[in-house]
Amino acid sequence: MKRETLNVKRHNARSERRGILLLAAALCLFASPALAQTALSPPRDVRAFDTPSDGGGSLTVLWSPAPYDSAAVRYQILLSEGPTVADPATMKVVAEFPSNQRYVRESKWPWWTRPTTGDQHQFTLRNGRGVELKNGNVYSITVAAVLNDDRVIATPVQATPQPNWLNWNQMNNLLLALLFGGIVFYAISTARKREIFLRRIPGLDAVDEAIGRATELGKPILYLTGAHDMSDPSTIAAAVILGRVAKRTAAYGTDLLVPHRDPITMAVCQEITKQAYLEAGKPDLYKDDSNFFITSDQFSYTAAVDGIMLRKKPAANFFMGHYFAEALLLTETGASTGAIQIAGTDSDHQLPFFVTTCDYTLIGEELYAASAYLSREPVQVGTLRGQDIGKALILGVLGIGTALATLGVMLDAQWPQLFLDFFKDVK
Amino acid sequence: MIFLRRQVPLLITLITGLAMAAQYYVPHPASEQMLTSVTKWLQIIGGFALVLGVSSLFHVHATKIRRKEAGWGYSFVLYVGMLGTIAVGLWSNGKEAIDGTMTAFGWIYNFMMVPLQGTMFAILAFFIASAAYRSFRARSREAAVLLIAAVIVMMGRVPLGEYLIPLSGDLSQWILNVLNASVRRAILIGVSLGTVALSIKIIFGMERSYLGGGKE
């Protein structure tokens, strides 16, 4: 009886152990779905093609997501030269990453150039790091899925890298530039028909005052065109304003000093100044030496100009164009001599220094508006109106975008994101 | 003559302006090659222009010395410095060091030029202090706002300031990231549109004053 009871107990204990093991195994399987579906299958729908809108030397490969995509399973990109591959396993591994990464939606392609839907995998292979893709050569490329020692490889596909003549990813930029250009031309034609109001720019109204003061005191005017060369729009704007200032100094018979950091800018400014004196009817007052070169070195130039300020004590200092660390060194020295100072710069980092030390500052775009403001020519004024329309458009998009983003958060809705993505890509 | 002085430069500006604008949208190596070539041309032209600049410098200071104008001694120092450096540079073959030994040219650069540049840059600290003192005197409402914002930002950027006023760290970040960044972006948008508009005017010949004024 006792032996029977013992046997039954042993049998029950064995059954319990077996049940626990089965339960544990089942729990393990449910707890790790990735491992539960470890039957790796070769990546599906593998496509490879020349990366569009680039300078060549690049291929893009796309494939469908798989049920086993997880951090544990990894994808490998395999590459070999030539149209045929005897054994895909011998192909060179050129990239490896977790299988839950590299989706089309994470790429930098805007929506109008995306080759497929956002849920597909993508990898762009470029020259470098052991990869050399030659334009015009055929390459075999494929994707492998790897888990521990298991590796399954899709059938290789062929692609040829080629350089492209047009970057379709930047078409938004081109369209916006054309749109803005169209607006500017429209505004110019409108300005030719009727007068357009220009708001006051105190810094430019003060130009006459500054020149008048210098004339009364019998002191020269110092005009700087900034740190950049003639390829920079701010230097061109500074040179254009110099023409207007030179015309006034010619009319008043005031001395003009224009020290330069760039010889080409100096040559251009000499021509502008000469023309201004001619137009003012005072060609005899023009001096070739009014525009002179000092040095291209930042602080040597600053020291020289500071010296001119302290020795010649100009009654008015103009700081137009782009500036770096020398901005405060120049303007603070000028302020210490008691000169009236007018600055105009698109260098946002130096603006606080100019605002602090100068009597008037043309902030950012006002530097570019100066030419229109001083000349009042329809073409110039129309361009300003075009800029204002452009700003209004940008402001409108910013307002709509802010409202949509706020709505999306408040309503916990996804649809505003579609519009936001549209704006993000179009910008 | 007018054709050479006006029409030809405008034509060159139009063609090169459009070509360089188009280059931005063409990723082909030929386009990159063109950009590289143009950059090299610019460097070559810059090299020739330097002769123009240096001759202007010599001329201006020679006139000052000849006429014994006020401060002509500085012009004399400039002549000595420039000719001396050129002579030493030629003597040293333009090298700062030969076989690990510093040349006279290297000595001039390292022990005269670099310290002088450093001195000029260091003066900036004193100028910032004097400019800040002048502008932070709360004479107007705007200056008072500037003063308060500056004090908060300064306190929030140093550990001691944040220790004394714990809120200053977050507040300074907010001032920098929200108020300051938004204003900077607004300025940059204006500058960008201004740049594009000016470029359009120059490319299409509507802005010609950079050629020497005139409307013909």
Give an account of the 3D structure:
The complex is a heterodimer of chains A (427) and B (216). Chain A has helices at 2-31, 33-36, 171-193, 202-217, 233-252, 263-279, 298-312, 326-336, 351-357, 365-375, 378-411, 415-426, and strands at residues 47-50, 58-63, 74-81, 92-98, 121-126, 139-147, 150-153, 157-159, 221-224, 256-260, 291-293, 316-320, 340-345, 360-363. In chain A, helix 4 (202-217) packs across helix 5, helix 5 (233-252) packs parallel to helix 6 (263-279) and helix 10 packs antiparallel against helix 11 (378-411). In chain A, strand 1 and strand 2 form a beta hairpin. Chain A folds into 3 domains: 47-159, Immunoglobulins (Immunoglobulin-like), CATH 2.60.40.10; 169-191 and 384-426, no CATH class; 202-375, Rossmann fold (3-Layer(aba) Sandwich), CATH 3.40.50. Chain A is 47% helix and 17% strand. Chain A has 427 residues and is of the alpha/beta class. Chain A is built from 12 helices and 14 strands. Chain B is extended, with a radius of gyration of 26 Å. The longest helix of chain B has 39 residues, at 29-67. In chain B, strands 1-2 form a two-stranded antiparallel sheet. In chain B, strand 1 and strand 2 (101-102) form a beta hairpin. In chain B, helix 2 packs across helix 3 and helix 5 (141-157) packs across helix 7 (167-203). Among the domains of chain B are: 1-66; 136-216. At the A-B interface, helix 3, helix 5, helix 6, strand 11 and helix 7 of A face helix 2, helix 4 and helix 7 of B.
What is the gist of this entry?
With 427 residues, chain A is an alpha/beta fold. Chain A has three domains: 47-159, Immunoglobulin-like (Sandwich), CATH 2.60.40.10; 169-191 and 384-426, no CATH class; 202-375, 3-Layer(aba) Sandwich (Rossmann fold), CATH 3.40.50. Chain A has helices at 2-31, 33-36, 171-193, 202-217, 233-252, 263-279, 298-312, 326-336, 351-357, 365-375, 378-411, 415-426; strands spanning 47-50, 58-63, 74-81, 92-98, 121-126, 139-147, 150-153, 157-159, 221-224, 256-260, 291-293, 316-320, 340-345, 360-363.
